[in-house]
Amino acid sequence: QVQLVESGGGLVQAGGSLRLSCAASGSTFSINYFGWYRQALGKQRELVATITSGGIPNYADSVKGRFTISRDNAKNTVYLQMNSLKPEDTADYYCNAAARWALLGREGGYWGRGTQVTVSS
Closest Cα to residue 53, out of 92, 24, 83? Predict the structure, then answer.
């Protein structure tokens, strides 16, 4: 089993920055892919960014150029640096991990409990 714990959320003014962290524990040697997802109140969960074991990132169009995903395999931690934050970025942010690409973001992967991000105007 893999356990994921997110941290770094909070309240920030529009245009500001936050860095989210996701620390993995347990059978972390099997993790190949990490992803960040978010869910706003009354909305469906959506992809924010993913990263492969080799460090190749992918971003949703809505955050491209503003957010940066990275990972530190030695620390079993993935990060999401969020710059130029907008009110529409307000959501609960969740970390996901999976051994296979097909499982990322789905029930077959592992999920943290989330961290809340609120961006004020």
Answer: 24
Per residue, the 3-state secondary structure of the chain, as one string, reads: CEEEEEECCEEEECCCCEEEEEEEEECHHHCCEEEEEEECCCCCCEEEEEECCCCCEEECCCCCCCEEEEEEHHHCEEEEEECCCCHHHCEEEEEEEECCHHHCCCCCCEECCCEEEEEEC
State how far the Cα of 88 lies from the Cα of 97, in Å rounded to an integer. 25
User: pLDDT tens per residue, the chain (121 residues)?
Assistant: 899 999 999 999 999 999 999 999 998 888 899 999 999 999 999 999 999 989 999 999 999 999 999 999 899 999 999 999 999 999 999 999 999 999 989 887 899 999 999 999 9
Question: Token pair of 31, please?
Answer: 């993790």
- Greatest alpha-carbon span in the chain: 41
